[in-house]
Amino acid sequence: MARMKEIATAAGTLACALGIGYVMQSSDAATARYGSDAAVKEQELRRLSNENAVLEVEDIVLTSAEFNAAPLEPTVELPDSAPVMLAAASADEPISRPVSAPIATEPAATQTCDITANARPVAAAMVNLTLAAPCMPNERVTVHHSGMIFTQTTSDTGALDITVPALAQDATFVIAFGNGEGAVADAKIDDLAEFDRVVLQWKGDTGFQMHAREFGSDYDGSGHVWAGKPRSVASAITGEGGFMTVNGDLSAAEPLVAEVYTFPAAMENADARVALTVEAEVIQANCGQEIEAQSIELLGDATLRTRDLSVAVPECDAVGSFLVLNNLLQDMKVAGH
């Protein structure tokens, strides 16, 4: 396929801006690579403090603005007077802590029903997160965990049953509705240190994608993992490689979405890097606009590293092209046994 000439922009600034590359690719090249298919403040028990930086990709300039999820959802108020119930649990069971928001003075008949949540560890440092909210059928709900945030929709019975990547050994999940009600659930993740994890999250239809190329794989090679070829949890357990999960209800209006790539921290007879890139397709929904995302990295030392990103997308005559942001994410170094 014909390949459009790469555009070098602000080369003098490039080295100072963490080496982020800015590459335009033609529609033909993109087709060859990808195929034809292509706020609630977090109410956790502990909050990790991470130093953020915003990367202005248009001019390759490092700025100091913060990724702001506050306008996305109303604030969940959990005052000291709010009732907190600890469900009985054995040592092998996760703790569920249903939380109800302050209830205004009103007739008993109009008061809301109980909302409960449970978090249960499963394979590959994942968590089975369930919610029971009988009075909240087909409602938008926001899930918060260690800085990761995404939206889901409850079922016709007000239930939610999803599997979520954990980012902390003592994992706390806050699940909040738009009216301020919600629940909190905890789980202990004993195998978290066995996996490295990278999150890319955003709001709305931005065109963002995260790509992992394992052991020198080319695009569309056997080691290329992305939302279009996510693999499964079994890949990490059997030693084949990493896997990708897309968290969030993409059909909801203005969804909050979090892509998470997981890779075993050590593999048998493996000693190579996993190359990670962030890309943004120029589409009608984002052309000529500024789009924002946030990355969260959990690599090796169990310390979360957060970075905010702002990208100026070219005008709509570039629809079908891709912006490739090299070196925004830290490549993973795989250590063999």
Word description of this protein:
It is built from 3 helices and 22 strands. It is mostly beta strands. Strands 1, 13, 14, 17, 18, 21 and 22 form a 7-stranded mixed β-sheet that branches. Strands 3-2-20-19-12-16-15 form a 7-stranded mixed β-sheet. The protein has a 5-stranded antiparallel β-sheet with strand order 4-11-10-7-8, with no helix packed on it. Strand 15 (243-247) and strand 16 form a beta hairpin. The longest helix has 8 residues, at 27-34. The chain is globular, with a radius of gyration of 21 Å. The model is unreliable at 1-96 and 99-111 (pLDDT under 50).
Topology:
Layout: H1 11-14, E1 21-25, H2 27-34, E2 54-56, E3 61-63, E4 96-99, E5 116-122, E6 126-132, E7 140-145, E8 148-153, E9 159-165, E10 170-177, E11 182-188, E12 195-203, E13 208-214, E14 224-225, H3 233-238, E15 243-247, E16 256-264, E17 266-267, E18 272-281, E19 290-298, E20 304-312, E21 322-326, E22 332-336
Parallel strand pairs: 2-20, 17-22
Antiparallel strand pairs: 1-21, 2-3, 4-11, 5-6, 6-9, 7-8, 7-10, 10-11, 12-16, 12-19, 13-14, 13-18, 15-16, 18-21, 18-22, 19-20
Q: Can you tell me the CATH class of one domain? A: Mainly Beta
The residue fraction in helices comes out at under 10%
**Which radius of gyration do the C-alpha atoms yield?**
21 Å
Q: How would you spell out the order of helices and strands?
A: HEHEEEEEEEEEEEEEHEEEEEEEE
Strand content: 35-45%
In total, the number of strands is 22
pLDDT < 50 runs, ≥5 residues: 1-96, 99-111
CATH topology of one domain: Lipoxygenase-1
Mean pLDDT: 74
Largest beta-sheet characterization: 7 strands, mixed
CATH architecture of one domain: Sandwich
Form type: globular
Straight-line distance between termini: 41 Å
Tally of DSSP helical segments? 3
Q: Report the structural category.
A: mainly beta
Protein name: Translocase
